[in-house]
Design brief:
The protein is an alpha+beta fold. The chain starts with a helix and ends with a strand. The protein folds into three domains: 34-47 and 279-350, conserved putative lor/sdh protein from methanococcus maripaludis s2 fold; 51-62 and 187-277, Elongation Factor Tu (Ef-tu), domain 3 (Beta Barrel), CATH 2.40.30; 96-157, Orthogonal Bundle (Helix Hairpins), CATH 1.10.287.470. Helix content is 25%, strand content 38%. Residues 24-28 and 271-277 have low confidence and may be disordered. It contains four helices and 21 strands.
Length: 352
């Protein structure tokens, strides 16, 4: 009987140890983290209230066709396409011999008319000639002097100089070509500042005004973003369709932005850009609702890499998401994918 009691005691003791061991293993078992994706609330590149994106193209601040003011055969063009030239640099010249000869002839006539006027004027002062003769001689002198001045201007116009510093966008004519007044020789571009030209539909044109800010992203520069200012909004649409044009000025001191580059322009609808940039708008799909109609989202607790449930107060609904009035702060890491698997304090792993 004693042996039986001792055996029962040992069995009970083993059972207690086994149960304690199982409980310990259960307590120390780790939960696999849930993979999630996130966005930073309120940061550039995330969602912004009132923000609408448009496609556009870059143009130069100034685009000027350089022409001669007198006709003639082009003798020399000193620049090539892509060259940077400074203000007042020589661009091209035409054959000037004819204009130089005309000037010399007009100059000689003016000198002769001057001598004749001075001689007649001395005689008139002595009272030996009628006043009309003096007036006629003075008029001939003034006309000859004006003709000489005009001929000299033609000589000057046989050369063209850069009206401002910039790049040669196109070389339209070559040496030997016959130039005429108004016929372009080169195209000169000023790109110290460039313009993003954006088409706007008639339903949205009145939402934007000169002085409003914009964010311009250029694919060719690795999606680099630039800050621009609306300088003009057209008041007349194209004849073919009701599309208006907004012009956004962008500073370009290093000349990286080139005319013709495609761009994406983000404009801020209905309020100034500073207010729009500070608005917290998140994807509507990331907002969940409790049984008692409370809205909540999940953000990442970066200290222990767990999900944190945050109750939020929602605002207006926009094309790109829903506004959050209370509950989130700029910079919070909002869970946008995998949130349906989460509860409060669930371990998470953020994936790209």
């Amino acid at each position: 009987m004693r042996n039986l009691s001792t055996h029962f005691y040992y069995c009970l003791l083993l059972a207690v140890f086994a149960l304690a061991s199982c409980e310990k293993k259960k307590e120390t078992k780790e939960v696999d983290p849930i993979e999630v994706q996130t966005i930073a609330v309120g940061e550039q590149g995330a969602f912004n209230a009132h923000e609408i994106s448009y496609s556009g193209a870059i143009t130069a601040n100034k685009n000027v066709n350089i022409t001669f003011q007198v006709p003639g055969t082009i003798e020399q063009i000193t620049v090539d396409m892509g060259d940077f030239i400074n203000k007042n640099d020589l661009i091209a010249r035409i054959e000037a011999t004819t204009y130089q000869n005309q000037y010399e002839a007009r100059k000689a006539q003016a000198e002769l008319a001057k001598e004749n006027y001075e001689r007649i004027n001395e005689v008139y002062k002595k009272g030996s000639i009628a006043e009309i003769k003096m007036i006629e001689a003075r008029s001939n002198y003034k006309q000859a002097e004006a003709a000489a001045t005009a001929a000299y201007q033609n000589v000057k116009h046989t050369k063209v100089f850069a009206p401002f510093s910039g790049y040669v966008g196109a070389k339209i004519m070559e040496a030997g070509d016959l130039a005429s007044p108004g016929m372009p020789v080169i195209q000169l571009l000023d790109i110290d500042m460039v313009k993003a030209m954006v088409p706007l539909p008639d339903q949205e044109v009145n939402q934007y005004h000169s002085g409003d800010s914009a964010r311009v992203t250029i694919d060719a520069l690795g999606d680099q973003s630039f800050t621009g200012i609306i300088s003009e909004v057209s008041v007349q649409s194209n004849r073919a369709n009701p599309v208006y044009t907004a012009q956004i000025n962008i500073q370009n001191p290093d000349h990286k932005i080139k005319p013709g580059m495609a761009c994406k322009v983000n404009l801020f609808k209905g309020e100034d850009s500073s207010t729009a940039n500070n608005a917290l708008v998140i994807p509507i799909s990331s907002v969940s609702v409790t049984d008692d109609n409370k809205n909540f989202v999940y953000i990442i607790n970066t200290k222990d890499s767990t999900a944190q449930r945050k109750y939020v107060t929602t605002g207006e609904l926009y094309d790109n998401g829903i506004a959050i009035k209370e509950g989130l702060q700029p910079g919070d890491q909002l869970v946008t994918s995998g949130y349906h698997k989460l509860t409060d304090k669930t371990p998470v792993k953020v994936i790209k």
